[in-house]
Amino acid sequence: MEHDGMFLQAEANLLDFGAEEKHDKIRITLQASFNLVYHFYTVWLFTVSDIKSVIVPETILGVTSAFSGSLLTTNDTPDPWHIVARTPKVVLWNWLNLFLFDLCNQSQAQSVLEDSVNKPWRAIPSQRISANQTRTLLLLVIPSVYLATLKLGGTWESVTLMIGTWMYNDLGGADNGVVIRNLLNGFGYICYSSGSMKVAAGYGQHYLNETSTSWLAMIGAIIFTTLQMQDMADVHGDAKRGRKTIPLLYGDWAARCSIAIPAVAWSVVCPAFWGVGLTGFLLPLIAAGIFLTRLFLFRSVTDDALTWWFWCSWISSVFLIPLGKRFGV
Questions:
Q1: Which of 243, 236, 115, 240 is nearest to 175 (CA)?
Q2: What is the biggest distance separating any 2 CA atoms in the chain, rounded to whole angstroms?
Q3: What is the pLDDT confidence band of residue 8, given thresholds at 50, 70 and 90?
Q4: Quick check: 156 and 191 in contact, CB under 8 A?
Q5: For residues 136 and 220, what is the distance between their CA atoms, to the nearest angstrom?
């Protein structure tokens, strides 16, 4: 009987140990899942505010350029299904390059100061990750992005963006006056646009033609003359870091006029460049009209943050113009 009791006790201990071990495994799995979600969300916070201004418009540009066929590429007969299948690659290419830029940009001491006012929810000011940890992460991200573009395409554009990122952030181009800052931004958008178009057209299969060079230059000019829209909602943070922007240098009214005049002009020049019909002028002009109405009627910092979305919608409408030409709009 004594042996039976010892056996039963040992069996109970084993069962308890097994239950405890199973509980530990569940706890470890849950903790690992939580950590994974936590880190994914931290990564998301770095890029979320730029999705509307970079990833969405540039994906639209790349895909519509591919659909435009011989207007912008060497492909006379684009296959819609192939282009749709390549769309996730266009999104990925843009996100990888944007992530690299945002890591570098948001880890700058002055950017952390600005974000503590304008965007305190971002990863660094909310203390989810430190600036030093972010810079260390860049050591992994930079070669990873380069290797990814060797497969996706747009390698030259990606490397050029890395140089531009260094000039904009580490060399102080972002704080060296309105002209230099907007020039770097315009050049950056040219790189995003060219890379998006190449990936969407089919890396190693089709290429951009001569007309694409003029279109890319025009896109760069649009960004150079209108991107100060993003500064309207950031005036408090920009003032704190000492950044020289048009609204801070010349005042609110002058800044709004500096956005409106070129926006209207480009809404006419771009359709004219592509030689579309009257219908082809309507989309960018209507989008510009809505955007600029908000710009002048709703002028608080909160309002300007929402109006920035309308700028993104307007620039996306401009990127659709070659598609209208392709289908005779």
A1: 243
A2: 100
A3: very low
A4: no
A5: 31
The position carrying tokens 């972010």 is 134
The helix/strand/coil state of 170 is helix
Q: How far is residue 155 from each of residues 85, 137, 247, measured CA to CA in Å?
A: 20, 21, 36
For residue 177 the two structure tokens come to 């006056």
What tokens appear for 164 in the block?
């531009």
CB 286 within 8 A of CB 307: no
Q: Find the DSSP H helices in the chain.
A: 2-47, 56-67, 80-106, 109-118, 131-152, 155-165, 178-201, 210-226, 235-241, 246-250, 252-274, 278-297, 301-319, 321-326
Tokens of 184: 């770097």
Residue labelled with tokens 């690659």: 89
**85-136 pLDDT, tens per residue?**
999 999 999 999 999 999 999 999 989 988 988 899 999 999 999 999 999 9
End-to-end CA distance of the chain: 95
- Residue environment code for 294-313, b if the CB has 16+ CB neighbours within 10 A, otherwise e: bbeeeeeeeebeebbebbbb
Q: Read off the pTM.
A: 0.90
Q: Which residues of 132-162 are buried (b: 16+ CB within 10 A; e: fewer)?
A: eebeebbeebbeebeebbeebbbbebbebbb
Cα three-residue angle 224-225-229, rounded to 5 degrees: 100
| Separation of alpha carbons 190 and 200, rounded Å | 15
Average pLDDT of every residue of the chain: 91
Q: Which residues of 3-21 are buried (b: 16+ CB within 10 A; e: fewer)?
A: eeeeeeeeeeeeeeeeeee
Distance CA(38)–CA(30), nearest Å, equals 12
